[in-house]
């Protein structure tokens, strides 16, 4: 076991190009931000963000529960600060997310009389929410994850309350409302585990259905919350190839590489998964062993080699967080673990994996 501090890459910060410079001919490089990042409360991480990234995604502050907690109340403060931060730093600003089954208050789906909302009521709420939120940041937020995670693992549509109450056209409606609210914004579909063939096929069908319906969809986001050993490089490669044929931008929207033992056989990123604490599943509280560190570096290098290979269609690669200490993987799907999924360690020092990633930019293929 070696201390995590020794895994930092001494001298990297000065000797290396930044991520956004290294990949400027290939794709945008970004991170998901929380409030401590864009309010400047965490100066170390804010400095990393300004230096390394040219696009940002809000980790939580634009989710329905945060920005529209009650029927009559929108809470724009944190989202306003997020957008201002992106503008001050010349970043491509993403909005995440408008229509999702998670982090959406129950009242959205209820009629206020103890029953479920009906189609008309839910469509009216969706329209109001999208017009208000997208409209507020019109021309400033450049791309929206309009619908998040509408698919099951077998590629069929998830039986969310959106689907059950409105019907299959809820996706079309969400994109139409977003387009009406800001005709110049890029509109995306976003999901996890799109490397698995069945779900990949479902996503392709979903995008084609939207295109057939005349909906303006600009991109598909594959979240990429991945493990050291899966999905395989081949599966990632195949997904980028197949998505590249859809005529939309392909984006890696929530990249992190989980080095901790899996809590279950479920390999997805379903935020509702929860497991009890178990020391055996939290083995690296004092640092990660060299063999795991090496596997981590190799994993990031092979993923970025694929992104570079597919950079004609890959438009953006966004990490889900900035430093290891802040990652959601310290608390999901088990609370209180010590996770190491990102390129910057708990002190904000670049890890060796950053060098491995930067190496891939030199290799091939410029748009
Ligand atoms: C996660 C955030 O990182 C956590 O802070 C929050 O508690 C739950 O949601 N897929 C998504 C993201 O699209 O919005 C999720 O973010 C991670 C999985």
Strand content: 5-15%
Rg over CA atoms: 20 Å
For this entry, what is the oligomeric state of its chains?
A: single chain
Ligands (ions, cofactors included): (3S,4R)-3-hydroxy-2-oxopiperidin-4-yl beta-D-xylopyranoside
Structural class: alpha/beta
Low-confidence stretches: 1-6
Question: With helices defined by DSSP (H or I, 4 residues minimum), what is the helix count?
Answer: 13
Shape assignment? globular
Strands of the largest sheet, in order across it?
1-2-3-4-5-6-8-9
Summarize the structure.
This protein has 367 residues and is of the alpha/beta class. The chain has 13 helices and 9 strands. The N terminus is likely disordered.
Q: Care to describe what's here?
A:
This protein is α/β, with parallel strands linked by helices and 367 residues long. Helices cover 37% and strands 14% of the residues. The chain has helices at 12-15, 19-22, 35-38, 43-52, 64-67, 77-88, 119-136, 161-166, 170-181, 197-212, 233-244, 290-309, 352-363, and strands at residues 28-33, 55-58, 92-99, 143-148, 186-191, 219-222, 225-227, 249-258, 314-319. The chain has an eight-stranded parallel barrel, surrounded by five helices. α11 (233-244) links the parallel β7 (225-227) and β8. The longest helix is centred in the C-terminal third of the chain and has 20 residues, at 290-309. The radius of gyration is 20 Å and the shape is globular. It starts with 11 loop residues before the first helix and ends with a helix. Residues 1-6 have low confidence and may be disordered. The structure holds (3S,4R)-3-hydroxy-2-oxopiperidin-4-yl beta-D-xylopyranoside. Residues 59-60, 148, 223, 254, 269, 271, 328 line the site of (3S,4R)-3-hydroxy-2-oxopiperidin-4-yl beta-D-xylopyranoside.
């Amino acid at each position: 076991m070696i201390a995590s501090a020794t895994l930092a890459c001494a001298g990297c910060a000065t000797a290396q190009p930044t991520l956004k410079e290294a990949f400027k001919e290939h794709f945008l490089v970004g991170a998901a931000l929380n409030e401590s990042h864009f309010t400047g409360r965490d100066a170390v991480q804010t400095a990393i963000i300004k230096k390394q990234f040219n696009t940002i995604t809000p980790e939580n502050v634009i989710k329905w529960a945060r920005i529209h907690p009650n029927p009559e109340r929108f809470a724009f403060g944190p989202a306003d600060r997020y957008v201002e931060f992106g503008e001050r730093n010349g970043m491509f600003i993403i909005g995440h997310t408008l229509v999702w089954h998670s982090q959406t208050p129950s009242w959205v789906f209820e009629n206020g009389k103890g029953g479920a909302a009906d189609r008309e009521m839910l469509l009216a709420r969706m329209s109001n929410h999208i017009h208000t939120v997208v409209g507020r940041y019109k021309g400033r937020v450049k791309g929206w994850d309009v619908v998040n995670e509408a698919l099951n693992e077998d590629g069929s549509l998830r039986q969310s309350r959106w689907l059950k109450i409105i019907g299959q056209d809820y996706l079309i409606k969400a994109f139409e409302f977003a387009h009406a609210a800001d005709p110049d914004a890029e509109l995306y579909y976003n999901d996890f585990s799109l490397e698995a063939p069945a779900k990949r096929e479902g996503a392709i069908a979903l995008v084609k259905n939207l295109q057939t319906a005349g909906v303006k969809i600009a991109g598909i986001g594959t979240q990429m919350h991945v493990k050291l050993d899966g999905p395989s490089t081949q599966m990632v490669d195949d997904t980028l190839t197949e998505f590249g044929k859809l005529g939309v931008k392909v984006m890696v929207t929530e990249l992190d590489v989980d080095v901790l033992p899996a809590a279950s056989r479920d390999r997805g990123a379903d935020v509702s998964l929860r497991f009890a604490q178990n020391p055996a599943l939290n083995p690296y509280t004092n640092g990660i062993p060299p063999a795991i560190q090496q596997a981590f570096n190799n994993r990031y290098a092979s993923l970025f080699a694929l992104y570079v290979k597919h950079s004609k269609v890959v438009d953006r690669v966004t990490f889900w967080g900035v430093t290891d200490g802040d990652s959601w993987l310290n608390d999901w799907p088990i609370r209180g673990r010590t996770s190491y999924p990102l390129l910057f360690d708990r002190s904000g020092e670049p890890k060796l994996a950053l060098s491995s990633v930067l190496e891939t930019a030199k290799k091939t293929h410029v748009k």
